[in-house]
Write a structure and sequence with these properties.
The structure is a homotetramer of 353-residue chains.
Chain A lengths: L3 E6 L4 H11 L4 E8 L8 H4 L18 E2 L2 H7 L3 E4 L3 H13 L3 E4 L15 H4 L5 H9 L4 E4 L3 H17 L1 E10 L11 H4 L10 H12 L2 E3 L2 E3 L4 E8 L6 E9 L5 H10 L17 E3 L8 H4 L8 E9 L4 E8 L3 H17 L4
Parallel strand pairs in A: 1-2, 1-4, 2-3, 4-5, 5-6, 7-10, 12-13
Antiparallel strand pairs in A: 7-11, 8-9, 11-14, 13-14
Helix pairs in contact in A: 1-12, 7-9, 7-12
């Protein structure tokens, strides 16, 4: 099989680098083009990019010449699809331009996530929302399309909520996050801000979790996603951890759900995509740990190659009259680059790309 | 006025050192004796103690000879009262022995906190619980008595809950803590456990918060403390922060309480002790910050000389149909040494010592 | 006495904030004006400045309107002198303009430090280099003048070298620094770069130490500073510490110097300024600790209100046939804001301002 | 080939765990027995051991019953050889007993390292010192023997010195280390000691480096190791880094050695063992990085599976009239478990075990 040729938009940042690392070894996809801002355009990737991941820059991308993120450059190459890790302030304009003229855009950037006709995909949770794509193309009169990956905390959260939602129903959710510094990009959190400290606020993050979660878990019906009808309350904090977002979750369920029930349904949970043999798909989307002091970011953030979410301390919640637990996911893999590539795999398997 | 002579039980540990530092400059109290375990007994304080606080060991305690924590040694000196920072595995036996023969024990250690006739005091919150002392002495046929300071997280939490409870009533509380490493004592958390990491579990801590909070906020009536009738759910985590416990709190109130109401009642809140001019009493027990990213442990942990609790981000909680906020308190001062000394001041002012 | 009116150039950054904090309580000086870049100009100081120091912004500077750093604005006010914490890329041009027309500039920024007629002052070490000022004014035909504070690591280092140089002579110096993140400014070191890590390189720093040290310790003779004739080798690293630069120093002395000799001459060392009763002058410029594990940044960085350097582990050096030791200084106080103000005090006392 | 059966002495600690992880996948060796102190004896390995490495405890060691570290237990099983990760206070007595009755002991513990007839092996550097083994057995009238791995910092240091010594000769060495907390064992460094701090002292470490380095680099002649005749000066510090020891090294060479010469001889350096195809032998013992800010502990500590040392910033040293550079090695792999296993491989290949 010929590999699909991918163009990575915004390939020099932290999420872009993870995408590139995962693509280099990908059985279905290959990197065709890497774009970045003007100041990087024209440079070789190894010069344009301060490589932040373990090991060296992969051999075969070092010499790729980075191009400016504009329509003309990208269209010339006719990539089979695009992966976008663009910063949120530039993403919307260029992604729309690209989709209009026929490009298939799988985007990790935040604008348009809540647009009604834009699927917000976490493949184990709502693979069927891809059905919106045709409606989107029709309505917008676009040759191509845009699908979005949710915010990193939402991706981790919704994966753990899905099995509970399906078996017991959910009335309310409370989540307190402790998010790693890598979630803000390489230079996002100064060391002076976070050494020996916690910052109890992340711009726009709580709103993203509260709105995106409802959409991701929502039901698609007649080209509309009906968000779940549950109260969600999020408090987001930044902690001195490099990788891995921890979330303390409490759920009020519709049907009574004992901790042992929750453990059981999380452990056996598989999405449809687990049967599709998608290359990036973890065998177990949720790994349940029984030790009283797990999950921990440093110990658990690479489970399932960073694509599994690790859940522990599943207990009764006296306040919510439901259950509570701790979830831990890799914000850059499951929460960003990995989920985007998993979406692309799903779209390929379902003939959208 | 002659100063009251204090014996510090367990004076070489982290809490004991804070007590000693605060006593050295105290206008009412003076250090009469310092006890510790056998291996320290007979040494000078400066030799027995690895001093962990800023600056040098206070001049006038360096030469004090540490004695073994036993009844005979302590009774010989006839101190006016005792401050106990003993480890929980040895505290109960010796504290009971001491109280029996007439000593007045103000203890920060955990055993007996939930005993029905033992006041668990957070002076701004429940100063009137001192009335139990006489009942305790009668019932137990003790010459002296024991009063306890609550667990550090409970002390911080109950201080912020008290004004809400008084004005709006409380039906349910959910709290997620991010506790500093100093809460476990100097050698309690190995650096290999916590650098670039979070540990989502602290032994017995959640149970302490859930039970002690109800007692501290409870009503004293006919020599019984009736705990408040509210569901409490606690999740406790350890974070790579040196000092200061952060707590993410959600409250379901009985009467409707808007964020602005909560701000108002917290800002104006004063305990009875604020009028008594107790030396360790902070002017404002609760300081409300309006910035969206406060409180932060490193920036706010010494507010009110470590005796105030700083609250921020007071917002509506969609899930609890009430309010939520972030609280930050100094676990070693407000949460341990400081509250113990404040209790002693209250007892002195009310003629119990 | 009327206080001298100071204009702080670049007053919103980390060094500028320290200057302002120290000036607010200063007995001789008062803040007359604060400048910053265009984007801050016109704002109140509390709006222009993300305050990074403990406690609140001092009451009486909050409302000061920040002005753009240009000649006209500054000259209008006729300040008695200027303290500059300008970034190095803009400092040179404006500082020269100001000196030309009569302003007296005490600058912490790096350009021109090695200019032959510019005093590079560490007051305990080379107060007499102020004599260059008149020569500078004549040669350059300036109405005012510029004097410079050395690089932070150099200030700390030269203070500890001075007593050894005077009594035993120095042939060679080797220094390995472990510098705190605050040395790079608030946003200088991303947390992703330094958590669980060390960066063994700081741009231009090694060269600064090697050249500035020779000048600071040099002899002034006939309007020329003759640098000391000693080999200097510096290796600079960045470590995950908030404040305080640690330096591992080895010295080859001319005369034999035993560790006990070095201890003695460091402990008794006083500069001329110690007799002048300058307000910011520490009682002991060098504090020698005898414990085997001191100095430590977190424990010792505020000695002498951050103006003393703490030295420990003074031992024989087998390799250099001399002595070696550990030095620790507060990079923002002794190494930047504090030394600049100390220079201004010296200049005032010697009638230069 | 049947695998050699290994007994791991002290297999539950941090070094022991690394040995076990490396043995589980070893092509020549297999774990026959794991010993520990009395409190672990009788338990399954998974119960006796708080597993600290990434991933789970290897499947096939979980169920192994840990035995007490005593002669009788060990002798019963007749292992082919022993790997010792015993704490230094118990190692000497039991290791001698074992060697006496015929056991072959490869030990990472510190006692006896400087004994004249005990080889102190860093295989790329002094594989020929194994010739002492026969002399040792004769002299001591032992059936078995003991060989030692050097202290972690010495192992890393001597590997980088060897090529320089061979080609240019060495007159003096100065080394400043920044050692990770894992070097002190899991609970060795409390988080309260090291967060936002550096400790400029490690018990006995400087003496170990100064004496062991001379022996490892020494020449074997007529059953005597003649240490190299070079001054060595070490200063050791503890830094808030999890894994990886960094060393700032300056060398005075006998023959002139330019940085480019040093780079060349380090890059081409191979020990005899590199030709023997030992399984744990890194392809390149020394990896030279050209970037100005490398090596860094977090980025480089797993080079060559943790068995290579990464060297960077090779420059002239003005003070030592030689060269200086930064070295970084994995203290638990190259510096402890890995080098011990590499020694065992060498001994097997040369028919000592």
């Amino acid at each position: 099989m010929d590999k699909l040729r991918v163009c990575v938009l915004g390939g020099t940042g932290l999420v872009g680098q993870h995408m590139i690392k995962m693509l280099v070894e990908h059985p279905w996809f290959e990197i065709d083009m890497i774009t970045a801002s003007k100041k990087s355009a024209g440079k070789k990737y190894e010069e344009a990019c301060k490589w932040l991941l373990d090991g060296e820059i992969p051999e075969n991308v070092r010499e790729i010449t980075v191009v400016n993120t504009d329509l003309e450059n990208i269209s010339k190459n006719k990539p089979d699809f695009l992966l976008s890790a663009l910063p949120s302030d530039v993403a919307e304009e260029i992604e729309i331009k690209l989709a209009k003229v026929g490009h298939k855009v799988v985007s990790n950037s935040s604008p348009m996530r809540m647009d009604e006709d834009i699927p917000l995909l976490n493949p184990e949770v709502n693979a069927n929302h891809t059905e919106l794509i045709n409606f989107q193309k029709e309505t917008r009169k676009w040759e191509g399309f845009i699908v979005k990956a949710p915010n990193c905390s939402t991706t981790i959260l919704t994966l753990t909520l899905k099995p509970i939602l399906d078996e017991y129903g959910i009335k309310a959710i409370s989540v307190v996050t402790m998010q790693s510094v890598s979630g803000a990009g390489y230079a996002g959190v100064p060391s002076m801000a976070i050494i020996d400290n916690i910052i109890p606020y992340i711009t726009k993050e709580e709103n993203k979790i509260e709105t995106e979660t409802r959409k991701v878990l929502g039901k698609l019906k007649e080209n509309k996603i009906k968000p779940i009808n549950a109260f969600i309350s999020a408090t987001c904090t930044r902690v001195p951890v490099l990788y891995g977002h921890m979330e303390v979750v409490s759920i009020k369920t519709k049907e009574e759900c004992e901790p042992k029930d929750a453990i059981k349904c999380m452990e056996k949970f598989r999405g449809k995509i687990q049967k599709m043999k998608l290359p990036t798909c973890p065998e177990k989307p949720i790994i349940v740990r029984k030790e009283e002091d797990r999950p921990q970011p440093r110990l658990d953030r690479y489970e399932g190659k960073g694509m599994s979410v690790v859940v522990g301390r599943i207990r009764k919640c006296k306040t919510m009259k439901g259950i509570k637990y701790i979830a831990l996911g890799n914000n850059l893999i499951r929460g960003a680059a990995g989920v985007s590539i998993l979406i692309a795999e799903l779209l390929h398997k379902t003939n959208h790309i």
